[in-house]
Design brief:
The structure holds 2 protein chains of 2 kinds. By secondary structure, chain A is of the alpha+beta class. Chain A folds into 3 domains: 151 residues, Aldehyde Oxidoreductase, domain 4 (2-Layer Sandwich), CATH 3.30.365; 178 residues, Aldehyde oxidase/xanthine dehydrogenase, a/b hammerhead (Aldehyde Oxidoreductase, domain 3), CATH 3.90.1170; 322 residues, 2-Layer Sandwich (Aldehyde Oxidoreductase, domain 4), CATH 3.30.365. Chain A contains 20 helices and 28 strands. In chain A, the strands form 7 sheets. A 7-stranded mixed sheet of chain A has the order 3-5-1-12-9-10-11, sandwiched between helices. Chain A has a 5-stranded mixed sheet with strand order 7-15-14-13-8. Chain B is α+β, with helices and mostly antiparallel strands. Chain B folds into 3 domains: 46 residues, Uridine Diphospho-n-acetylenolpyruvylglucosamine Reductase, domain 2 (2-Layer Sandwich), CATH 3.30.43; 120 residues, Uridine Diphospho-n-acetylenolpyruvylglucosamine Reductase, domain 3 (2-Layer Sandwich), CATH 3.30.465; 107 residues, Enolase-like, domain 1 (2-Layer Sandwich), CATH 3.30.390. Chain B contains 11 helices and 14 strands. A 5-stranded antiparallel sheet of chain B has the order 4-5-10-6-7. Chain B has a 4-stranded antiparallel sheet with strand order 11-12-13-14. A 3-stranded parallel sheet of chain B has the order 1-3-2, with no helix packed on it. The longest helix of chain B is centred in the C-terminal third of the chain and has 21 residues. Classes of the chains: A alpha+beta, B alpha+beta. The interface between A and B is medium-sized, with 23 and 20 residues.
């Protein structure tokens, strides 16, 4: 038998999309081998520690660091006085890393030490003497907006008491703020007065949302080193390496090109690493002052005290509908407790107003927020970004309105739910929309309609355990969010002569599984197994530009970028193969590590062999491609209108609870979720992400509560800050609605934030279904629920406040 | 900061109590309270740190006449799994099952839980209603001196006991329950594991013909120490457990306790829970 007669090998079609693919970083993490920033130590490294304020609001009268400087092993002790060129940091540039003249919250940074060991650094902190003059504390945002309230960021005065001459464009940290309002948001579509006039039913309620924090298992940290040429190398847990590079350069008054950020594997982000915090800049100052690498790691207590929080919100919602179940209007006023300084938390209204204006069809909507300064911890960004708070109010009102007009809550929701093809009052355009499928699927799979009726009938039955079921839905960006001038991501792809791929992406991995999904997408194009990919994503000196991990954008944006690079590589390979085998490119395809005949799957040549041929020739060619993807979204206009995301994600969750009326303990027994994710890429990954998000939502709803009293955190530890533990996790039934988004990578949309958004709202509805008692304030701790059941909770009401 | 200068790991009780003579000693057993408390600066480790884990006399669970002796070093897990405890003192198993987490139960000891003297200590409430005694050893001269103290008089405040600095807790002794003995424990917290109780309740006694006698009631986390509830006990003694009586006794229990507000709950809620859970336990006893 000669070679020509040998039957050609046929490669059967296969796909990686929708398969259950273990995360690429899982074996290392599960075996304890991952090297987090905590495990990295540089030669000659010093340890940095921060002295924080032991007052809540006070003037700093004097700081004496002489004894600390004299302690053997101490290399640098710095205060604001040592950094004359300090620049203000934060979203509103309203504070200095090392505080100047005044402390405004418990976490405030007074001084910092770099020493040869953590123990010496801590001993040195104890030797620093600070004299304070206490000021009145504002711990309640309602007090902060009173006309006679003490100012948190007063205008500085000259020595003679006169106003300092202030130039235009100066930051709040320099020129102060004549009131305690950090940010204002005012949004309108339609005319709520007309909407109210058309309503048969109008309700108004106040909701109160509390402080929680991310509780990343890996505490925050940073290592900074300047080399002999003045270049800065940072090991950082940031979610935003490229934008932060530029910001750090500004704070250090240096050329951004001389900064390189390496991101070691991270022990949790969830939004907490989206801003630059004082400790990071202080670590750089210490490294600069000590001329040695400095490592700074938080203790767990510090992680609680000095990490950002979710934005606490006081919210009054007025909603109306007609007897036939048509929503007529929504009017929303919120008061955000900004804390002492401004981080991304203040900007959560960007997301909150989307939910109010566009989750359901609302002809008239009017939304107002004031984020006000207090002496409390300051709020940052956190998975869901305001949407948990907005959904908590909206979805309770959906149930309440339905009850008022005697309509089934499911039917009421379906009647007002958005469809594909609609453009909302805020200008969001829903190209793919599986919302109604989400509602119907979650309702059917949980037997919602029957259980709602049954539980109401059983409310007055004997026994202390009452069962309840509640529903809530959400809308969130699923195709990036055009917040910056760019919302894009770059990819560099190279193939070696064994047909292995190095995927160099701007997208950071923060545990969300992006490495695995991006590898899948690339392998799908190039017909290779996932084991063929090495992902490089953690070094700004190597990776291309990206605007960071936020807004559930990575799969969508970085995914499209990776596909773009893979398609270019494929085109090049097929062109080479077509020439070599004298056929048309369109007759060929890539599959199973081979170039194949597209028509019948017959193997033409092994891809690795073709690549070697390409390399080992006179005019060698390499398969190396680049791609940059920018989504077709637009910026919002000044009225916050515009199609800000390239796609939108939807979801409905049904929560079932058992309420113990003797104790107020709420047990979450089951969560049935249906999520419009566009398309499932990695089924194992998405299930994990949904499950984790549900548990995060459960903690927000039931147990987690960062207690702040007069600016003092009462429970900065895992003993008294109650994360959900394994036995409390409910049964979960998760369905995926595949709406195949036209712009999404393989049809997928972002889902990272979605699963935690609805849980608290659905739980509130479930408790009402079980007991007939509605609770407007989170979290639903046993005591809060018990008080409400015993009629011991006065009705919450916050009168919307209007400033002129 | 610590004054720690010496580390000592005795292998006999004699060595241990002799070391305690000068009093300036911190005793280490499981370390599950000592370590976090010293790290948080709430407890200062003294000049000598004495690790008692290598003393064989402090281990084991044995039946000695009409008493069950649990060595001070016995871990919570060992208690929970021991056949003698499971058979004769099942209420202790219930308490173990609500004690922290598996990891802490594997390290934490009964002696440590008693000496830590937390008002919310999980093992203390069932031990109180079982009439447990603490056995203490010291070496006043050159010979070991042992004596027992009822647990009900052992605690004086949060973290404070009547054990002197030169004494070592060697065991806890529990009289074998008589025929018809019932004992219940309820720990109220926000989650099933890894929680400090908001309140806890222990009820024990002899239940015959619908009445409870020789009653013991103890409450946790409502006072500076775990406490026996004498008024509730008196009111319960010899009573027939009908619905009206149970309600009356639950009210007496609520009025008897004087809890405080803290991060876990308000005093009001604690009193309500004492009422509701006492009622629940007594109803359970009555229906059994």
């Amino acid at each position: 038998m000669n070679v020509a007669e040998k039957k050609a090998r046929v490669i059967e079609p296969d796909t990686l999309i929708g398969k259950r693919i273990p995360k690429m970083d899982a074996p290392e993490k599960a075996s304890g081998k991952t090297r987090y920033i905590h495990d990295i130590n540089l030669s000659g490294q010093l340890h940095g520690k921060i002295l924080r304020s032991d007052r809540i609001h006070a003037l700093i009268k004097s700081i004496d660091t002489s004894a600390a400087k004299a302690l053997p092993g101490v290399h640098a002790v710095i205060t604001a006085a040592d950094i004359p060129d300090q620049r203000p940091i934060g979203v509103a540039k309203d504070h200095f890393p090392l505080k100047v003249g005044r402390v405004r919250s418990e976490r405030d940074e007074i001084a910092a030490v770099a020493a040869e060991s953590e123990e010496i650094a801590e001993a040195a902190l104890k030797l620093i003497k600070v004299e304070y003059e206490d000021l009145p504390v504002i711990s309640n945002p309602e007090d902060a907006i009173k006309p006679d309230a003490i100012l948190i960021h007063p205008e500085p005065h000259g020595a003679d008491g006169s106003h300092e001459h202030l130039k235009q464009g100066m930051s709040i940290a320099h020129k102060g703020k004549p009131d305690n309002i950090a940010m204002r948001f005012d949004y309108v579509h339609g005319d709520v007065i007309q909407g109210e006039a058309e309503s048969d039913v109008v309700i108004e309620d106040t909701f109160k949302l509390h402080y929680v924090t991310h509780c990343c298992m890996g505490v925050s940290g940073m290592i900074a080193e300047f080399d002999s040429s003045g270049n800065l190398l940072m090991y950082s847990n940031t979610q935003v390496p490229f934008l932060h590079k530029r910001e750090f350069a500004e704070y250090l008054n240096m050329d951004p090109a001389r900064i390189r950020i390496i991101q070691p594997p991270i022990g949790g982000g969830f939004g907490s690493k989206l801003d630059i915090y004082p400790f990071e800049v202080i670590c750089l100052y210490l490294a600069r002052a000590a001329k040695r690498p400095v490592k700074m790691l938080f203790t767990r207590e510090e992680e609680f005290l000095a990490s950002p929080t979710r934005q606490p919100v006081l919210l009054t919602l007025r909603s109306g509908c007609k007897k036939d179940g048509t929503l007529t209007f929504r009017q929303v006023h919120t008061l955000h407790d900004n804390g002492a300084y401004t981080s991304w938390g203040a900007t959560t209204p960007f997301v909150m107003m989307q939910t109010f204006s566009s989750l359901y069809r609302v002809p008239h909507c009017d939304y107002h927020t004031a984020a006000v300064y207090t002496n409390n911890p300051y709020a940052g960004s956190f998975r869901g970004y305001g949407n948990l708070q907005a959904t908590f109010a909206i979805e309770q009102h959906m149930d309440m309105l339905a009850e008022k007009i005697g309509m089934d809550p499911l039917e009421f929701r379906l009647k007002n739910a958005q469809d594909a093809g609609e453009t909302t009052g805020q200008g969001m355009s829903f190209k793919s929309c599986g919302f109604k499928d989400c509602i119907n699927t979650a309702a059917q799979r949980s037997d919602y309609a029957r259980k709602v009726q049954e539980n109401v009938a059983n409310r007055n039955a004997a026994g202390n355990i009452k069962r309840g079921v509640g529903m809530a839905s959400m809308l969130h960006v699923g195709g990036g969010a055009k917040i910056y001038p760019s919302d894009g991501c770059g990819t560099i792809l190279k193939m070696d002569d064994f047909a292995n791929i190095t995927l160099i992406t701007g997208a950071s991995e923060i545990g969300q599984g992006s490495e695995t999904v991006l590898s899948q997408l690339v392998c799908e194009e190039l017909g290779l197994p996932i084991s063929a990919v090495t992902v490089v994503n953690n070094d700004t000196a190597i990776t291309p530009w990206d605007v960071g991990v936020h807004a559930s954008r990575t799969t969508f944006i970085a995914g499209n970028s990776a596909i773009g690079a893979a398609k270019k590589a494929k085109a090049k390979i097929l062109a080479v193969a077509a020439t070599k085998y004298e056929c048309a490119e369109s007759d060929l395809d890539l599959r199973g590590g081979f170039v194949i005949k597209a028509a019948n799957g017959e193997a033409v040549v092994e891809l690795s062999k073709l690549l070697r041929n390409l390399h080992f020739q006179d005019k060698a060619e390499l398969v190396m491609t680049t791609f940059y993807y920018e989504p077709p979204s637009v910026h919002q206009d000044k009225g916050f209108k515009g199609d800000v995301s390239a796609a939108y994600a939807w979801g409905t969750q049904v929560v079932e609870v058992e309420v113990d009326t003797d104790t107020g303990i709420v047990k979450m027994t089951k969560v049935t979720g249906a999520h419009d994710v566009g398309r499932v890429l990695n089924r194992l990954g998405i299930e994990g992400q949904i499950e984790g998000g549900v548990i995060m939502g459960q903690g927000y709803a039931l147990t987690e509560d960062l207690m702040i009293e007069n600016g003092v955190m009462k429970n900065p530890n895992f003993r008294d800050y109650k994360l959900v533990t394994a036995p409390e996790i409910p049964e979960m039934d998760i369905s995926f609605i595949e709406s195949m988004d036209g712009e999404g990578p393989q049809g997928a949309k972002g889902v990272g934030e979605a699963p935690s958004i609805c849980i608290a709202a659905a739980t509130a509805n479930a408790i009402f279904n079980a007991t007939g008692v509605r609770i407007y304030e989170l979290p639903f701790t046993p005591e809060r629920v018990y008080r409400a059941l015993r009629g011991q909770t006065p009705k919450l009401y916050w009168k919307p406040w209007k400033a002129n | 900061m610590t004054e720690l200068k010496h580390y000592f790991a005795p292998t006999s009780l004699d060595q241990a109590v002799e070391c305690l003579k000068d009093g300036d000693v911190t005793i280490l057993a499981g370390g599950t309270d000592l370590t976090p408390q010293s790290q948080a600066g709430r407890l200062k480790i003294k000049q000598t740190l004495m690790n008692i884990r290598h003393i064989p006399q402090l281990s084991g669970i044995t039946l000695e006449g009409k008493e069950i002796r649990i060595g001070a070093l016995t871990t919570i897990t060992e208690i929970m799994e021991h056949p003698l405890i499971r058979e004769r003192l099942p209420v202790l198993v219930v308490a173990c099952d609500h004690f922290a987490s598996d990891q802490i139960r594997n390290a934490g000891t009964i002696g440590g839980n008693i000496c830590n003297a937390s008002p919310a200590g999980d093992m203390l409430i069932p031990l109180l209603v079982l009439d447990a005694c603490v056995e203490l050893a010291s070496m006043p001269e050159n010979k070991i001196y042992r004596h027992c103290m009822p647990l009900s008089t052992f605690f004086v405040g949060p973290g404070k006991t009547r054990k002197s600095l030169c004494e070592l807790v060697t065991s806890v002794r529990i009289p074998l329950p008589a025929e018809g003995h019932v004992a219940h424990f309820y720990k109220h917290g926000t989650r099933p594991a890894l929680d400090i109780s908001t309140i806890s309740i222990g009820v024990a006694g002899t239940f015959r013909d619908g009445t409870l006698s020789n009653v013991r009631v103890a409450f946790g986390a409502v006072a500076p120490t775990p406490v026996r509830a004498s008024q509730t006990e008196q009111a319960l003694e010899g009573q027939r457990l009908d619905e009206a009586t149970i309600e009356k006794i639950a009210q007496i229990a609520r009025d008897e306790v004087k809890p405080i507000d803290d991060v876990r709950a308000t005093a009001w809620y604690r009193k309500e829970m004492i009422h509701n859970i006492t009622k629940r336990i007594l109803s359970h006893v009555a229906q059994a």
